[in-house]
Specification:
- It is a single chain.
- With 356 residues, the protein is of the alpha+beta class.
- The protein has helices at 8-30, 39-61, 68-88, 94-97, 101-110, 113-134, 137-177, 187-200, 217-224, 226-242, 267-282, 308-324, and strands at residues 207-214, 249-255, 258-263, 294-301, 330-332.
- The protein is 61% helix and 9% strand.
- Strands 2-3-1-4-5 form a five-stranded mixed beta sheet, sandwiched between helices.
Length: 356
């Protein structure tokens, strides 16, 4: 993760704005204002200015044309260019050294701590080269220490603020996509994951949608109170998570007493999951009115549907059929009539799928 780029779009914009400003600035101060200096030096500064401006345009207009490693090397390349320009112009002034702030802030904003530390070291070394070449030893030492300390502290503050901001964003994202009562995903997160999973699923990589409804939940609330009702909902969510058996999954509460689970599995494994959930809930002794019963509908891609909308529709239909058949049971969707209650399917050897 040491080379992970935090925000490629933001990094591209940061590089573009710097280069588009640095190119004309360098041309004005390094070429136009130094007419009379040695010609090779002016040509080198002019070519550098044009190159900076060109990179800025590409970063702004077509950032995808640049290789991914460019964004990670940008602070090192920029620091090296700044050092080269300072040496070429024999400029050890504080104003010239302030340009090192850009690669420092770029690294601290978009890159990992290791790259931030290496950038600080490169800036320190680059400034030491310029200072000790063009200042007396004592002044150069003081100047080098001041710049190194200032850059280090700036990097620590910016990186610390960024990490704190990342943690706050993670908390907000969790709150925006999860149900506060049960800890399950909410409908917003479920809808997004359903669309992603079904779109990515293939014939050999089915996705099962399991719809769960707590039977007679209103009676639980009316008889025992909402605190017991909330306890029942948490119990169901925990059972759904526990029954996944390590498979890739998402447990979501869609609202009220309705839950949904997305599983990377075929029909038989999804049915076994549903029955395991009902068994886990039935085994509880924590609720004063006894464990709630669950009605469950199951649908699988590509057996029963090919789109997220159709998958949810047929799973809902299977759930309603489970309720109409007496509740407290699981029902598998079918691509066509007749619909069959999977509770009455013949037993099969463990691991044998319901489809071929």
């Amino acid at each position: 993760m040491a080379h992970r780029l935090r925000d490629e779009h933001g990094a591209a914009r940061a590089v573009a704005y710097l280069m588009l400003a640095a190119g004309p600035y360098n041309f004005a101060t390094g070429v136009l204002m130094r007419i009379g200096d040695p010609l090779p030096q002016l040509i080198a500064l002019g070519v550098t200015s044009v190159a900076l401006f060109a990179v800025g345009l590409v970063s702004l207009r077509r950032p995808a044309a640049l290789p991914g490693v460019f964004w990670r090397l940008a602070p090192f390349v920029t620091a090296a260019v700044i050092t080269g320009l300072n040496v070429a112009t024999e400029d050890a002034s504080m104003g010239a050294q302030l340009f090192y702030l850009w690669p420092l802030l770029y690294a601290a904003s978009f890159l990992h701590r290791l790259i931030i530390a290496l950038t600080v070291l490169q800036i320190s070394a680059g400034h030491a080269l310029t200072a000790f070449l063009f200042l007396d030893a004592v002044a150069a030492l003081h100047d080098w220490i001041a710049i190194t300390v200032a850059m280090t502290m700036t990097a620590l503050v910016v990186a610390g603020l960024r990490e704190r901001n990342d943690k706050l964003l993670a908390v907000l994202n969790s709150q925006a996509t999860s149900d506060a009562l049960t800890g399950a995903a909410n409908r917003r997160a479920f809808d997004a994951e359903l669309a992603r999973s079904v779109t990515a699923a293939g014939t050999d990589d089915p996705v099962a949608l399991v719809m769960i409804d707590v039977d007679h939940f209103k009676t639980i609330n009316d008889t025992w109170g909402h605190a017991v009702g909330d306890q029942a909902l948490r119990l169901v969510a925990d059972a759904l998570r526990d029954a996944t058996e390590g498979r890739e999954h998402m447990v979501a509460r869609l609202g009220g007493d309705e839950f949904a689970v997305l599983l990377r599995s075929g029909p038989y494994a999804a049915f076994r999951f549903a029955e395991t959930c009902r068994a886990l809930v039935s085994a509880t002794t924590d609720l004063p009115g006894g464990p709630p019963r669950l009605s469950i509908g199951i649908a699988v891609t590509p057996d029963h549907a090919a789109t997220p909308e159709d998958l949810q529709r047929v799973a809902d239909a299977a759930l309603y059929q489970a309720k109409e058949a007496g509740r407290g049971r699981s029902m598998m969707a079918h691509a066509g009539p007749p619909h069959q209650n999977v509770d009455r399917l013949p037993s099969r050897p463990a691991g044998h799928p319901l489809h071929t």
